[in-house]
Design a protein that fits this description.
Elements (H helix, E strand, L loop, with lengths): L15 H28 L1 H5 L5 H32 L2 H19 L5 H4 L1 H31 L6 H9 L1 H19 L13 H7 L1 H19 L5 H8 L7 H8 L1 H10 L1 H19 L13 H29 L1 H17 L1 H5 L3 H19 L2 H7 L6 H18 L1 H11 L5 H20 L10 H12 L8
């Protein structure tokens, strides 16, 4: 008779390639869905769902629905955070991605205001709220998949892969809009800055319907994941919290507040460089609120060029944050964002070359500030409440920085008589708040994501010295 085994088999481990693809795929879909809605909110939604005699009012109404999703995101962060901290990261990520995919697909088949009146607008709001709810649980789960499975000394690098989904989603979403626009050109004599009749009629629906293909691929990738060893040990040791939200608010309130404001400048810069810049770039120079006067295709191509720097510097920021620390890296980048907001208008006034430089610098700073967040926010919280804590910080910041940013930017744009100098000041002011939060916070580079290892290290630090022996 063979002897019984003396030890259990080691738990299965996610291959590194699967970890990176799974974290990247979900956030790529997340930001793809964001960009196609943001683009449609500028191009067609004002006339299809928010008819008004005043184009600015229609645009602001469209942006208001855009911002409504940000309000739903903290609710999603609480719900999906609860599930992620109790049931596991894998199953929660599958549910959040499926919810997002269904909501995005349904936007593509909605009736317009001309067909169903305010019922159409209400349905768009409902689907947008569902998107925001799903997004509330998406990012933090993807970041945890990357960081909790990262090798030693490379946590910030691995944390940049879910962040890389932002520029990739932009390129895929806007690239698809460009292809559709090229295949559905405007009639002869039509205003080239406006989408064609065919695009307004049905072409805009294609990117929303195409999201179903991306979601299917993402679900397949995520279904092959296993839980991280860090979470598995927490569950086996009985340290899973019954109410993660209560625990994180009671015991980690300071981290919640700091994390929210650390993310603030990133969100403001992100939405100004994408949603606002598209509106400002396309607005005619002789409009009531004048803009740069570029046609849609030209300006989006300029933006895509800038987004290439966004992608490159997102990856570059990871090794820098691993070497010099998250806090130190972000302090310098946030200071650069403050300066960028103050030189915003002088850059734009240089002409097309200046506009391209404005986009390149803005997106470069975006990559540098966004990349380290994939590691920093999860590092603020222990495993038992990490999904909830990082998700709440990330998504509450979306209200303060993203939900209101396009609305405030348009109002400041109007107040500046067509010059966006006040918008730049607004960005700098929000970056000052982020800088203060970083200065009040601590470096998290050497924080252990394993609660037991962290507790052991703490016990060792506070253990009494051994008695001297003769």
């Amino acid at each position: 008779m063979s002897a019984p085994a003396t030890g259990s088999a080691p738990p299965p481990v996610n291959p590194r390639s699967r970890v990176l693809v799974a974290s990247l795929m979900g956030t790529t879909i997340e930001f793809y869905d964001f960009y196609i809605y943001a683009t449609a909110a500028v191009l067609v939604f004002p006339q299809l769902f928010f008819p008004s005699s005043d184009p600015t009012t229609a645009l602001l109404s469209s942006f208001a629905v855009f911002g409504a999703a940000m309000v739903a995101r903290p609710i999603g962060a609480v719900v999906f955070g609860h599930l992620g901290d109790r049931l596991g990261r894998k199953r929660t990520l599958v549910v959040s991605l499926l919810t997002m995919g269904i909501a995005t697909f349904l936007i593509g088949v909605l009736p317009t205001y001309a067909q169903a009146g305010w019922v159409a607008t209400a349905l768009l709001v409902l689907m947008r709220l569902a998107q925001g709810f799903a997004l509330g649980g998406e990012w933090s789960g993807a970041a945890l998949v990357a960081t909790e499975n990262a090798p030693s000394g490379k946590r910030a690098l691995y944390g940049t892969f879910p962040q890389l989904g932002a520029p990739l989603g932009f390129i895929i979403g806007n690239g698809l809009f460009l292809v559709i626009g090229a295949l559905l050109p405007s009639a002869a004599g039509a205003d080239p800055s406006q989408p064609s009749d065919a695009f307004v009629s049905w072409g805009w629906r294609i990117p929303f319907l195409f999201s179903a293909v991306m979601v299917a691929i993402g679900l397949w990738v995520r279904s092959r994941l296993v839980e991280s060893a860090v979470f598995a040990r927490t569950r086996e040791s009985g340290e899973v919290r019954r109410l993660p939200l209560v625990t994180v608010v009671r015991s980690h309130g300071k981290q919640l507040v700091l994390g929210t404001f650390i993310m603030l400048a990133t969100y403001v810069l992100f939405y100004l460089m994408t949603t606002f810049s598209l509106s400002y770039g396309r607005a005619a120079k002789n409009a009531a609120v004048p803009g740069l006067g570029y046609d849609y295709t030209t300006f989006v191509l300029m933006m895509i060029f800038g987004v290439l720097f966004f992608a490159a510097f997102t990856l570059i920021s990871g090794p820098l944050a691993d070497r010099y620390g998250r806090r130190a890296t972000l302090i310098w980048i946030t200071a650069a964002i403050i300066v960028f907001g103050l030189v915003w208008v002088p850059l734009i006034d240089l002409g097309t070359l200046g506009v391209v430089l404005w986009l390149v610098l803005g997106f470069t700073l975006m990559g540098m500030t966004f990349g380290p967040m994939g590691a920093l926010l999860p590092e603020l919280f222990p495993t038992s409440v990490r999904y909830t804590g990082s998700g709440i910080s990330y998504n509450v910041s979306s209200i303060l920085g993203a939900a209101v940013a396009p609305f405030i930017a348009v109002a400041l744009w109007e107040a500046g008589d067509g010059s966006p100098w006040l918008v730049g000041v607004y960005l700098s002011a929000m970056a000052v708040l982020t800088l203060i939060a970083l200065l009040l916070g601590k470096e998290t580079k050497h924080v252990s994501l394993d609660d037991r290892e962290a507790a052991s290290a703490d016990d060792a630090t506070h253990a009494p010295a051994a008695s001297p022996t003769s």
